[in-house]
Specification:
This protein has about 500 residues and is of the alpha+beta class. The protein folds into two domains: about 15-110 and about 210-455, 2-enoyl-CoA Hydratase, Chain A, domain 1 (Alpha-Beta Complex); about 115-210, Pdz3 Domain, CATH 2.30.42.10. About 20% of the residues lie in helices and about 25% in strands. The chain contains ten helices and 23 strands. Strands 3, 4, 5, 6, 7, 8 and 22 form a seven-stranded antiparallel beta sheet that branches. Helix 6 runs parallel beside helix 7 (about 270-280) and helix 7 (about 270-280) crosses helix 9 (about 335-345). Residues about 1-25 have low confidence and may be disordered.
Length: about 500
């Protein structure tokens, strides 16, 4: 039986050209180019997408026989001078998540959780007026600029720099070029938001890294010792710390686990496998997931991942061996978070509390202009920085495949619906880690039969339609990153 190994895949029957596609087309320096467009980036994007993209067979412009020769290929590339626009036109119409950046280093840093940040995590909603937006603070990162300011979880803002938030301006106001902005805060009263005059000025700093393990604690309630973990990103740099957190819960003798993934937009596929092993089992004969690639690569790269007994660093997994887990969710719960849900579903009772998840079931790999990487052309490797084309710093994060669980289930593009549908309530968000915080208290009540929740507000409540969250505007976004070594070379 094949096991999950951090070794190159042994292949014996595929050769990938570093400079041409299967039919031999490449850039023609004398081809039609009336505007003298440098198509180096477009050339990289097309070749990488033609080989790796999950929907390659469904996009006419990525077909192996799309071009009659070098001149035809070159003309196609130079007709779209903007690399970002060119990349978008190569995407399949159902692709919601592939993207490109002009600086691959920004992308690589983000996959380690290193970003420019003021330390504020928030969600944007619309109210009854579909043009008006408001933001709600989810949590504040320690040691950030926001941690030094008078702002806290559950607070509401309706304007930035005095300008009311709308669907058309929030991107520029909150995620534009300016590193400093002022939030204009508001109070909720029934179905209305009223500015309260409070202003909070925040500044984003470079190279800020979030520790994804936000809270790890236990509660002793009615004979139950309940572990509670707020985990906000699947970052493989923190796998040892995550395993240590489970070790602490195991030593404490927890009987139940509440895993809070409300604000976890995803990340490492392997970390999701490790986390699932920490919850359920270290039996390496049990299937966690299987890959599905494009038609070119499916028979070559299809791989089965099993539950893990050790971390990549060799530490034994601290497994709880539980047959049930309670997971708190929102619309921001995505990709690797949903992979945990899907991977565990065939084996244990996964009890969801909150809102329906995002529905992000595709994985991706970072690609750069390194066609000469043996066995894995264009796939980024930190050891090959000197081989990346110095004249092309663009990076792409295309979707390369989907994951299915041990039962073959992968169709969760609509997200996973909760068993208890409970939206976070304006004016009553509570404090994360407090047993009376509304969603946590619901989980505790399910476990113990004893209510610890604060009284719910009565009367009319404001409509809250999810739009997006702040994680969608850092480079990692809601990507599910396949962090496994891949090798296409002839053996």
């Amino acid at each position: 039986m094949k096991k999950y190994l951090w070794l190159p895949l042994a292949l014996s029957f595929l050769f990938i050209s570093c400079t041409k596609n299967d039919d031999g087309v490449g850039l023609d320096p004398n081809g039609p180019n009336p505007n003298n467009v440098d198509a180096t980036t477009q050339d990289f994007m097309w070749k990488a997408m033609n080989l790796w993209y999950f929907w390659q067979q469904d996009v006419a412009d990525l077909a192996d026989d799309r071009f009659t020769g070098d001149a035809d290929y070159t003309e196609f590339l130079v007709n779209t001078p903007d690399p970002a626009q060119f990349f978008d036109q190569l995407k399949f119409e159902e692709d919601r998540f592939s993207w490109a950046v002009s600086d691959y280093k920004e992308l690589v840093n983000s996959l380690s959780g290193v970003t420019k940040s003021n330390g504020l995590d928030f969600t944007l909603f619309t109210s009854s007026d579909s043009e008006s937006l408001f933001g709600v603070i989810n949590y504040i990162l320690p040691n950030s600029d926001a941690s030094t300011k008078d702002i806290s979880r559950g607070e509401i803002f309706t304007a930035v720099n005095g300008t009311a938030l709308t669907l058309s301006n929030y991107n520029d106001l909150l995620f534009g070029e300016e590193d400093t902005y002022t939030l204009n805060m508001a109070d909720v009263d029934g179905t209305s938001l009223t500015p309260n005059g409070k202003e909070v000025t925040l500044t984003k700093f470079d190279n800020f890294q979030e520790d994804p393990i936000f809270i790890n604690k236990t509660f002793d309630i009615n004979g139950h010792k309940i572990g509670y973990l707020v985990y906000n990103r699947f970052l493989n740099e923190f796998d040892e710390q995550l395993n240590a957190a489970f070790g602490q819960m195991k030593t404490a003798g927890i009987t139940d686990l509440v895993l809070d993934l409300r604000y976890n937009a995803g990340g490492s596929v392997n970390t999701s496998r490790l986390l699932s092993s920490m919850i359920f089992s270290t039996n390496t004969n049990l299937v966690f997931l299987k890959d599905r690639w494009n038609d070119k690569l499916q028979d070559i790269l299809s791989e089965t991942d099993y539950f893990a007994a050790t971390t990549n660093g060799g530490s034994p997994i601290n497994t709880l061996n539980f047959n049930k887990v309670y997971i708190l969710t929102t619309r921001g719960t995505a990709s690797a978070s949903e992979l945990v849900i899907n991977g565990l579903n065939p084996y244990i009772d996964v009890f969801l509390i909150g809102r329906t998840t995002r529905g992000k079931n595709e994985f991706s790999i970072t690609m750069v202009d390194d066609p000469g990487r043996e066995g894995a052309p264009y796939l980024y490797s930190s050891s090959r920085e000197n081989f990346i084309n110095p004249n092309n710093q663009w990076g792409i994060q295309p979707l390369l495949g989907r994951t299915e669980n041990s039962e073959g289930f992968l169709d969760y593009t609509e997200g996973f619906a909760p068993m208890i549908d409970q939206q976070e309530e304006l004016g009553n968000y509570g404090e994360l880690g407090d047993e009376s915080e509304p969603l946590l208290s619901t989980a505790i009540e399910e476990i113990t039969g004893i209510s610890s929740r604060k009284a719910l507000r009565t009367g009319p409540r404001m409509q809250m339609d999810y739009i997006t969250n702040s994680k969608m505007f850092d480079p990692l976004k809601d990507n599910m990153i396949l962090d496994r070594a891949i090798d296409l070379k002839i053996q």
